[in-house]
Amino acid sequence: MTHRSRTQRLALLSASTALVTAGLLPSTAAFAAPASAAAAGAVATAPTPTPPPTQPSQDAVKTTDPPSGISAELPGKAQVRSGSIPLDGKTVAARVYGVETPDGATGFAVYDMPGDRLPLEDALKGFVDAYALMGNGTLTSENVRKTTVDGHPALDATLTGEDGAGSTVGSIRFISDDDHLVMALTYGPEEDEKDLNAKHKQLLDSLQVP
After folding, report:
1. Whole-angstrom Cα distance, residue 129 to residue 149?
2. Cβ neighbours for 111, distance < 8 A, ≥ 6 positions apart
3. What is the C-alpha to C-alpha distance for residues 76 and 208, in angstroms, rounded to an integer?
4. How far apart are CA 34 and CA 63, in angstroms?
5. For residues 124, 176, 153 and 105, what is the CA-based torsion angle, rounded to 10 degrees?
6. 150-168 per-position pLDDT tens digit
């Protein structure tokens, strides 16, 4: 892959990740493909979100992505959003399942990418770039670690950010199989870091990729 094609791919990935990411961040980030996404060459379908409950339940709810069978337990009924993005001449469908909690937000997203094992480092860079595309301030990934999950390549990282409301922290995992890219994310204010870490561990422990 040439440097130019990799750069273009990352730009498109960032735009598509912005579509999905907004569904996993607290409600300060509106769920919409940013105007700069169009400039990157991506066109998102209009999502049809399910409104979250007024006071999200903290009871564990098994949430399954029907097309893939990928599932995880979330602390309440998930807010479901979807969209599709053109990438490398193909259409990538993306679905996000997120729950807002008193200390932030947690959930997972599934990209349909049959036969395309995207480098997970590129996926992480796309996420960080997407955060900036949405105008949420700055975001940095740290403690990047390669691992495996049920034989699938995976990448973990911690996140730190700054926005108008103060400092934010989070944890993220990407998993790749032959047909999907999976993103698991927990994110919120720095002062709630301990609770956020516990929620992310619960998310990862329950995440099932068939």
Report:
1. 25
2. 16, 20, 92, 93, 94, 180, 181, 182, 183
3. 18
4. 27
5. 50
6. 899 999 999 998 876 678 8
